[in-house]
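F.,

This is the one I mentioned.
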């Protein structure tokens, strides 16, 4: 199963590179590659047996913006995975992802620990959810099933040992 997960991840990453590369992101030098739902694989019972072929990016990344703190630029995005996950019987609606880069050099920073707390439109805050490091970003599958504004509070402790916090918002219709 571990080999199957690796093969699926590599296949999806290779399939999405042209789409993501053509989307571009202006002055950002971070490599944004969409990936499968590895967080759900780790968290959901029996999820490894599902077909992930519908998870490739199709240009539907939602840019949540970029923030800088203590010399690190964090760029957050989401991918709507609702249709693919529904086919597998899962309630997941989005894949939240965040990448980090050195603010001066633009070099990607991939090592460390990252977690997110999500505040839904009703003001309910989730407990911290660990984000899994994957192909240039940290990510997790999340459920954003109510219309309204969501707030993402991301805490990180990257390889330099410093803690940083970043906040992003988005409106779900």
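My design for it:
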């Amino acid at each position: 199963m571990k080999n199957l997960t690796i093969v699926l991840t590599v296949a999806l990453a290779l399939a999405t590179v042209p789409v993501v590369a053509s989307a571009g992101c202006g002055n950002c030098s971070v490599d944004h590659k969409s990936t499968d739902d590895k967080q759900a694989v780790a968290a959901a019972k029996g999820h490894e047996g599902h077909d992930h072929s519908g998870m490739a990016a199709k240009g539907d990344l939602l840019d949540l913006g970029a923030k800088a703190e203590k010399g690190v630029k964090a760029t957050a995005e989401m991918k709507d995975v609702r249709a693919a996950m529904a086919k597998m019987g899962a309630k997941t609606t989005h894949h939240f992802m965040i990448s980090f880069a050195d603010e001066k050099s633009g070099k990607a920073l991939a090592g460390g620990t990252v977690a997110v707390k999500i505040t839904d439109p009703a003001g309910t805050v989730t407990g911290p959810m660990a984000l899994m490091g994957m192909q240039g970003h940290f990510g997790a599958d999340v459920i954003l099933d109510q219309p309204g504004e969501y707030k993402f509070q991301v805490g990180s402790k990257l390889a330099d040992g410093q803690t940083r916090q970043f906040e992003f918002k988005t409106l779900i219709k």
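The longest helix spans residues 2-23.

Talk soon.
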